[in-house]
Design a protein that fits this description.
The complex is a heterodimer of chains A (488) and B (169). In chain A, α8 (210-226) runs parallel beside α11. By secondary structure, chain A is mainly alpha-helical. Chain A has helices at 16-34, 41-58, 77-103, 110-127, 131-149, 156-187, 192-201, 210-226, 235-242, 245-270, 275-298, 303-322, 327-354, 370-373, 375-389, 395-409, 414-438, 453-471, 474-484, and strands at 65-68, 73-76. In chain A, a hairpin with a 4-residue loop joins β1 and β2 (73-76). With 169 residues, chain B is mainly alpha-helical. Chain B has two domains: 1-80, NADH-ubiquinone/plastoquinone oxidoreductase chain 6, subunit NuoJ (Four Helix Bundle (Hemerythrin (Met), subunit A)); 121-169, no CATH class. Chain B is built from seven helices and no strands. Classes of the chains: A mainly alpha (488), B mainly alpha (169).
Chain lengths: 488, 169
């Protein structure tokens, strides 16, 4: 028996961005051994150079449809969309990192390796078209993030957060894997294309195939956990609060984006023929997320916890776009993910800039009178809060508008009504931050600290993007529409 | 065959309960060894002799021996016992577990399971051999996942070394 590799479609061009990011991680690993401890800033520079190269390599994938390696990965517009988004998030994270790593006494090369590893995993997840690669992408990003959340080795909170994330993440992975095994057992295929072919071919039989439905259910649990959608959200506030704020900034936006890429590939692309079966559970998850996220966020006095619950709520909004199963809904989802990435990254970056450790400075009382102490940070934070609340002229407004419009066009009313009511509820806790920052300052808490050029630039750019995309949303919406059209 | 499966499946359930039920880490680890051996027997019953051998040598053998060694090394004198579980957690767990089991049971009784038989029947496997079948699948169809796994292990190793080896200043 000879082994024939010609049939599986070896195509390094299709996975070039992932290869570059992984390669950069290995280069950083070796450089870390050579470079003296004082010059670790170079590791950040090398990481950024590698990420920029991967960004350039992602652009040719736009508009293509290249299935590679036995249909386990694909290079298409959707993958390119997420590649660009995830790489930009990663670059911004690395840009603001060195200064705060030094401040926390955590300036180790492993940080960059793990961020690059997580990015590679997320990019793989967005390009995955097989249960195997979906699983490996999730594991690659998860293991990197487990270690990153415990990166502050001397801080007990950080260790606790890593431990919780690891245990609950492992549990969720069990569900995910079990679901995949059941789906394989029901359909006899590990590739999404094969599964879709089986599901479509068996017609009505598929929607009463218990093995398949159970598999999809377990798979949804695993994916919803990564997207931190309720009721699989329990880990989110504790992990976000305990992890170094720098890491929270990265994982809050990047993990959610990658998880929704996989959710899109699974539900929109693989199981459209049994949409009536997954519609109700997903709608329930979305409604739960909207309720729990928005209502619990009101009671939070710690900004990291508040943003964690707000993240859960936003997972609900993003999931709403999946529900109609239409091109319009999916492009609204993609637009929302991009918008959320910009505004939430900015909000967490401001929390980081105020104090990277985030024990005391994340407390809302510390933010009292911030407008008078740190006018720049307070101003950009106001922009991010308005955008997260969905108030024009910010990108958050259009993100919600597009999702709601898709729901109206698909005549999906109950989730829409919940979403609108919960949006109004969310005004309270987002605007409260602004009110607190405007309040008269305490005389005691006067600290003069400079933001730093790179951090200031990153935060300023995020704020500018939040407003510019809020005035001209069409550019990104066109990209999102094109990326979403891959599966219609 | 069915009787054999039922016995092994029952053994699996009991040992799995032991993994989470025992209060001493060393018993948890030993229950896990038992569970993995049972899994190996299941592989054997499915005509997957190579997976059986790999499961016994790699998991039940190497990995679990390390587990047991580490637990023994960490607690040379007395085993660490975990504190008692809180009552409410047990209650929630049992209630939701029962609901879940009832749902599954209703589904199974009403609909039955319809798995799909794949191309790898015992005859096909025996014609080329167990090891070769697994090897061919790993290095053709699943070549890319195998390569990604190597990256996964590298990143995991970097993370583990960071958490374990970096001296706290």
């Amino acid at each position: 028996m000879t082994i024939n590799l010609n049939g599986i479609g070896i195509d390094y061009g299709a996975i070039l961005p992932e290869l570059i990011v992984t390669g950069t991680a290995i280069v950083v690993l070796f450089l870390d051994l050579i470079i003296p401890a004082r010059r670790r800033g170079w590791l950040a520079a090398v990481s950024i150079a590698g990420l920029l190269a991967a960004l350039v390599a992602s652009i040719p994938l736009w508009g293509q449809s290249r299935a590679a390696f036995g249909d386990t990965v694909v290079a298409d517009s959707l993958a390119a969309f997420f590649n660009v988004l995830l790489i930009v998030i990663s670059i911004l994270t690395v840009l603001i990192s060195p200064r705060f790593l030094r401040a926390l006494d955590l300036d180790y090369g492993e940080y960059y390796i793990l961020v690059l590893g997580a990015t590679a995993g997320m990019m793989l997840l967005a390009a995955a078209t097989s249960l195997m690669t979906i699983f490996l992408g999730i594991e690659l990003l998860s293991i990197s993030l487990y270690v990153l959340s415990g990166f502050a080795r001397t801080a007990l909170r950080s260790q606790e957060s890593a431990m919780k994330y690891l245990l609950l993440g492992g549990f969720a992975t069990g569900f995910l894997l079990y679901g995949m095994a059941l789906i394989y057992g029901a359909t006899g295929s590990t590739t999404l294309r094969g599964i879709a072919a089986f599901t479509t071919a068996s017609g009505l039989g598929a929607s009463s195939n218990v093995l398949l439905l159970l598999g999809i259910g377990f798979l949804s649990v695993g994916l919803a956990f990564k997207a931190s959608a309720a009721p699989f959200h329990m880990w989110t506030p504790d992990v976000y609060e305990g992890a170094p704020t720098l890491v929270t900034t990265f994982m809050s936006v990047a993990t959610k984006s990658a998880a929704f890429a996989a959710i899109g590939r699974v539900f929109i692309a693989t199981f459209p023929s049994i949409a009536s079966r997954w519609y109700f559970p997903l709608a329930l998850i979305a409604i739960f997320s909207l309720f729990i996220g928005n209502l619990v966020a009101i009671t939070q006095d710690n900004l990291k916890r508040m943003l964690a619950y707000s993240g859960i709520a936003h997972a609900g909004y993003i999931l709403l776009g999946i529900l109609p199963g239409t091109a319009e809904g999916f492009s609204a989802t993609l637009f929302y993910i991009a918008a959320y990435a910009v505004m939430n990254f900015g909000a967490f970056a401001v929390v980081t800039a105020l104090g990277a450790g985030g024990d005391r400075t994340a407390d809302l009382s510390y933010w009292r009178g911030l407008f008078y102490r740190r006018p720049f940070l307070a101003t950009v934070m106001t922009i991010f809060m308005l955008s997260l609340a969905g108030i024009p002229p910010t990108v958050g407004f259009f993100a919600k508008l597009f999702v709601f419009r898709a729901l109206v066009d698909a005549q999906i009313w109950a989730p829409l009504i919940v979403a609108v009511i919960m949006t109004i509820v969310s005004f309270y806790y987002y605007l409260r931050v602004i009110v607190v920052m405007l309040a008269a300052p305490d005389e005691a808490a006067v600290e003069k600290e400079r933001v730093g050029i790179s951090t200031g630039t990153v935060i300023g750019a995020a704020a500018a993007a939040t407003i510019i995309l809020g005035i001209f949303p069409a550019v990104v919406l066109n990209w999102a529409t094109h990326a979403a059209s891959v599966h219609f | 065959m069915v009787v054999g499966f039922a016995i092994v499946a029952a053994w699996e359930l009991v040992t799995a309960a032991g993994v989470i039920g025992f209060r001493r880490p060393i018993y948890n680890a030993l229950a896990l060894v038992g569970n993995m051996l049972g899994l190996a027997v299941l592989f054997l019953m499915l005509n997957a002799q190579f997976l059986f051998a790999a499961q016994v040598i790699v998991y039940a053998g190497a990995v679990m021996v390390l587990f047991v060694f580490i637990i023994a090394l960490m607690n040379p004198e007395s085993d660490v016992t975990l504190g008692p579980a809180r009552g409410s957690e047990w209650m929630y767990g049992i209630v939701f577990g029962l609901i879940f089991a009832a749902l599954l049971g209703v589904l199974l009784v009403n609909q039955g399971l319809t798995g799909r038989s794949g191309p790898f029947t015992p005859e096909v496997i025996n014609a080329v051999g167990n090891v070769q079948s697994v090897g061919t699948a790993l290095y053709t169809t699943f070549l890319f996942p195998v390569e990604v796994t190597s990256v996964l292990l590298l990143i995991a190793a970097v993370g583990a070394v960071y958490l374990a080896m970096r001296r706290i200043r």
